[in-house]
Design brief:
22 helices, about 80% helix
Length: about 375
């Protein structure tokens, strides 16, 4: 029995020594995901030299593929990830990076297979479950994605990435109380994470808890005053609550950080209109359309204005242009339906409304 234990220890030490020899001189893989682009570029050169000298060094190939993915060099990343998987076909981490490379090169089905293989080889590789769930969600398999995350969290309840993705998918599934529990659990793990804070805001807004959402946005801005996404969220919450002056104030703060993008300018149009400053809103919308003629939400807003002004033919033209630019935009189909109804074409109106309901069955106006 003693000899057997000694033999086991010797084999374990030998395996550890072998692993250390394989990874000696290689960058810490966990840190590569947080390294700056400049730092990644510096690390890539010696890895390229190493894989040239040792073509079957799976550890170096995997790290090089990971660096290339972070730098946006997706084609060479796929080549090196495939070579890493060939060099170490039973290494879960190799399959995980291979899956990321397949995703980056537009091969979602092959990415799913690689992630599934990674999980099979390394059942406690939680990052593989998260990527697997993301890939499933991208293929409109939200229920399967949530089951993958449940398994990940069963193994590691305090995994931040799994908790946050769970919150996002539950929000998309309109399971809002569960989504709020999940995001609160994620934020307990990383209270300062900006993305988790924004997801929390979105969930509160979706639940109609506008006062709580506003407080949360203001608390976040007190800690991070230059956060553009938080200012946008604050403006959106204020507008939804009917505080148009508050929305405009948040947008003014946003503009001091830099020019407003198309979505932010559209938010300003809505706030101006809500504040009773119709002429300013129309002028701002016209300028926005000149600057962004292919922006579908801008055409939707113009269609809405034409509907309210009793100009259904103009509204129909704008709504149809929005749908041509973004076919799954439910609001475009909704205003197309309203324009048809104003033109006394109930059959076409019903057809457009059915399209809108298919794309967004929870849309308040469509339900009404």
């Amino acid at each position: 029995m003693i000899r057997r234990d000694l033999l086991r220890r010797a084999l374990l030490l030998l395996a550890l020594a072998s692993a250390a020899a394989c990874t000696s001189g290689l960058p810490d893989e966990a840190l590569l995901r947080f390294e700056t682009p400049e730092g990644l570029a510096r690390l890539a050169a010696p890895l390229e030299q190493r894989v040239q000298a040792h073509p079957d060094d799976g550890e170096a190939l995997r790290r090089l593929a990971l660096i290339e993915l972070r730098l946006g060099r997706v084609e060479p990343a796929l080549v090196h990830a495939q070579r890493a998987a060939q060099a170490g076909p039973f290494t879960g981490a190799n399959q995980l990076v291979l899956g990321e490379a397949f995703e980056a090169t537009g091969k979602p089905a092959r990415a799913l297979a690689a992630y599934a293989r990674a999980i099979e080889l390394a059942p406690n590789l939680i990052g593989a479950y998260v990527r697997y769930a993301q890939a499933q969600a991208s293929l409109h398999a939200g229920d399967k994605a949530l089951k993958s995350l449940e398994e990940a969290l069963r193994r590691e309840p305090n995994h931040f990435g799994a908790r946050l993705l769970q919150a996002q998918l539950l929000r998309e599934a309109n399971r809002l109380p569960e989504a709020q529990q999940a995001v609160e659990a994620a934020r307990a793990l990383r209270p300062q994470d900006a993305l988790a804070l924004r997801v929390h805001l979105q969930i509160l807004q979706a639940r109609g808890q506008l006062a709580a959402a506003r407080r949360l946005a203001e608390q976040g801005l007190a800690q991070q005053p230059g956060q553009r996404p938080l200012l946008v969220a604050l403006a959106g919450v204020a507008r939804e609550a009917g505080d148009y002056d508050g929305a405009l104030s948040a947008l003014e703060r946003l503009a001091r950080l830099g020019p407003l993008d198309a979505d932010e300018r559209l938010l300003k149009v809505d706030a101006l209109a809500g504040a009773g400053r119709g002429a300013e809103a129309q002028a701002a919308l016209a300028q926005l359309l000149r600057d962004h003629p292919h922006n579908a939400p801008v055409h939707v807003r113009l269609a809405e204005q034409f509907v309210r002004a009793g100009r259904p033919r103009d509204a129909l033209r704008e709504a149809q242009q929005a749908r041509a630019l973004m076919p799954e935009l439910a609001e475009a189909a909704y205003w197309e339906a309203v324009a048809h109804y104003q033109l006394d074409d109930a059959a076409l109106g019903d057809a457009s409304l059915a399209v809108a309901a298919r794309f967004d069955p929870q849309h308040d106006a469509i339900l009404l």
